Structure prediction request, 491 residues.
Amino acid sequence: MVRALIPAGRWPGHRTPAPGRTLPEVWAGRWAARPDAPVLIDGWEGTRRVDAATLGARTAAVATALAERGVAPGDRVLWCARATLPSIEALLGVLRSGAVLVPVSPSATGPEIDHVVADAGPVLALCDRERPDAFSAGPVVMGVDELAAAAAAAAARTAPGACPIRRPGDDALIVYTSGTTGKPKGAVHTHASLLAGTAALLTAWDWAPEDRLVLCLPLFHVHGLCAGLFGTLAAGASAVVFDRFDEGAVLGAAPSGTMFFGVPTMYHRLAATGEATALARLRLCVSGSAPLAPDLWHRLAADGVVVLERYGMTETLLTLSNPLAGERRPGSVGLPLPGVEAAVDDADDSGIGELLVRGAPLCRGYWGRNDVVSGDWFATGDLVSVARDGYVTIRGRRTELIITGGHNVYPAEVEAVLSRHPGVIEVAVVGAPSAEWGESVVAYVVGDPDLDSLHELAAAELAPFKCPRQVRLIDALPRNALGKVVRGDLR
Ligand code: MLC
Ligand code: AMP
Prediction:
């Protein structure tokens, strides 16, 4: 095996988080230093703002209310909500209570949520709407509003006590990521890995207390949660928060912000408005989670928006980034972030090999499994090439992962559901190229299923982004001599 190290990037390095060994300690330091500073601003109703002192008090009260309900440090608490100010306060309160946060998409189906419940064993689930379809067995279910009321009552009764102290190696967050075998597994981040992941971004992107992030990413993925929200709080900065993406709203918020983080589908839609030049007022626009097409990068650059592309994974947080100062190269994801080492494994004659990463932001492993991730080289499954000056370009994937709108879809998971339909003899799911979505989920089906009931089956079992956008009936799936489906022939 030949492993070639990728040279480290060069970063401004002016900013580090406030002192603290865990994110909640760092946040508390930031909030105490500038108690009047606005931290969270509702993007839809700008007058709804939470300043640092209020956020500190409310999240401590949430921690007290959770403890009163028997939630102990190390217990898992599932959080299934949109990114509103009350639901963010609940999420931060979970971390301040010492419990382990398990965020789940609010559009996850009942069976998807129940898989996470069975695996992570949460004692409590916080939701922003009724979920009669989920939680048939398992945790106590509580509304986000109900928790806010309990927190307010706790605060009225007693002065907030000190939040439990956690050690850097303690578990803080479990994010479920689609497994190649079909069932998602939980990547476990410790307080130390979360802190390292945010510290890298503060250093690399010179994230200052004066910064204001326009944040419309979901908070059940590491992009919105760890880079967006946790980065903002560790920097002592602020965020304008939207609970869904809307191109007009983002463009409207740009003048009051300094940074925007998005997935390529968002940039595609922003460019399509013809008014993307409004983003040029921001000091930094970052894209990640899926490849940003170079022609889209150039269209945005022509509008004065020089997007900085970066790369990451649920298991590793962000690991590579184009430089803040210096060339932001279209089609490349840049160089290793501070605290991250990267290498290419077994490159072929054209210099393409699998990307390996290691460093402090890596998760410690998967919940309930023995495989250890931190400390060793982690094989990302992404195939890359490296330019002479160290810039990394993603060339493809070792796995059959489809990325649509920045969400990951494993064909096996969708195929397992569709193949249960009585009219389906065989099915293969692939990603078809799409300018807007990057890839779009397409199912090739052998058989004669009633298509409406096939779509209904998918919608009942799979989150909307996993459901096939098209079903194509064919006579036989293309197979190689070994009988394996040749997906390339279907794309
Ligand atoms: C949805 N639609 C699609 C589609 N998905 N059409 C084709 N292909 C697809 N893949 C259709 C729907 O049917 C619907 O149509 C319409 O598009 C709107 O669908 P939606 O799903 O409601 O989309 P929307 O709300 O517009 O959201 C798009 C989005 C969202 C890009 C804003 O997907 C998003 O927030 N993505 C971010 C994901 C993310 O955060 N990933 C980070 C992973 S972490 P109709 O006809 O019904 O209206 C990670 C690590 C790292 O990867 O490095 O960051
Ligand atoms: P997830 O498992 O949801 O965290 O998704 C991680 C995957 O997203 C990576 O393995 C990559 O395939 C992909 N990804 C993230 N950022 C980029 C990027 N900038 N360019 C291309 N692919 C990316």
In short: The chain has a mean pLDDT of 94.
